Amino acid sequence: MNNNNKYSIDLEVKFKPLEIIDVPSLIERSKKKWQNISLCTVNNSVIRLAVIEGEFHWHKHTNEDEFFFVLDGLLLIDLEDKVIELKPKQGFMVPKGVLHKTRAPTKTSVLVIEDSTVKPTGD
Questions:
Q1: What is the domain partition of the chain in residue ranges?
Q2: Is the alpha carbon torsion for 106, 84, 67, 57 positive or negative?
Q3: For the domain 3-115, what is the CATH superfamily, name and number?
Q4: Among 50-54, 92-96, 107-111, 119-123, which is the least confidently predicted range?
Q5: Is pLDDT above 70 for 1?
Q6: Pick from 57, 47, 23: nearest CA to 114
Q7: Which of 23, 30, 68, 105 could disulfide-pair with 51, CB 3.0 to 4.6 Å?
Q8: Residues 50-73: pLDDT tens digits?
């Protein structure tokens, strides 16, 4: 199975400007181990909700930075030389070109902010 089949990544933006986004309801309805929902766009960025458990593959984004903000759970971001541990209400930015892998030992909800041109599975 290739990595694109292991993850549910919905690139279609679900909410328009001036619409309320009920994030807790979206988290509650998420039943897959690795689900990524594109919530809205802000200027040239897309805001995604990731509800995850397990690990993503090693990848990088050649031209885009990526910001993670943990809502609940625990997110581990493996870098080549260290592991970043993010708890609820903590954020971390992975600069473009940096090889990384995200993983969550239990169900974790994360807001991800990245340029709308990013390929979520990496370059």
A1: 3-115
A2: negative
A3: Jelly Rolls (2.60.120.10)
A4: 119-123
A5: no
A6: 47
A7: 30
A8: 999 999 999 999 999 999 999 999
Distances (CA, A) of 45 to 42, 68, 74, 110: 5, 13, 24, 16
Cα dist from 66 to 2, 46, 88, whole Å = 23, 10, 18
d(CA 70, CA 119): 21
> What is the pTM (predicted TM-score) of this model?
0.90
Smallest CA-to-CA distance from 110 within 25, 31, 23, 32 is with 23
**pLDDT for the residue numbered 121:** 65
Give the tokens for residue 87.
């708890």
CA angle 114-36-107, nearest 5°? 115
Residue-level pLDDT at 5: 52
